[in-house]
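Recap from last week: sequence in, structure out.
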Amino acid sequence: MPSPFAVAENKRIVKSELVPPEGAEATGEVVRWGGFKKIVYREKVEQSHLEPVKRADGSVWQKANASGQPIDAVHTRRVADPPIEREFILDDLGNGLVKCVYNFRGDPEEAKRKALADKRQGMLDRLLDAAVERDIDPEALLAAIEAEPEAGFPKKHGARWKLSDGSTVAGKRADAEAAEAALKG
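Predicted structure tokens:
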């Protein structure tokens, strides 16, 4: 008995003409999609939305409470103005059908994330190459990264500046830095 997962030899892929829907026009742009070059088409679509029907006094028509049947038309369909433009490509499904693919460009956030990941990988490669060229010990590099920075003085302490010897100075930062320099010098 043949495997149910085996592909039948008499099965064939049906190629169909990639004819865009009526009213669509080619933009002249060609993109790669699934390993093939595809023509980008543009169409204008009139979108409609429902608006509530209002009485002369401005109130909205209601449904009858007892039966739930509308007293009158509760909503009317209105066409949005202006129509929106959509771009799409045509994709052959292989069974004689063709579908319009509207999200063929991809997510811009995904492209940003990929570019950032590529940039990080490039920086990491350059950093590691430089470390190998200079024969830097990885343990020494980690110790230098993890070492706490030296506490800088003067530090802001409320309305005053605290110096390295514990004393405080009132005034501007420049005054406190001068006092700190006098302590060290």
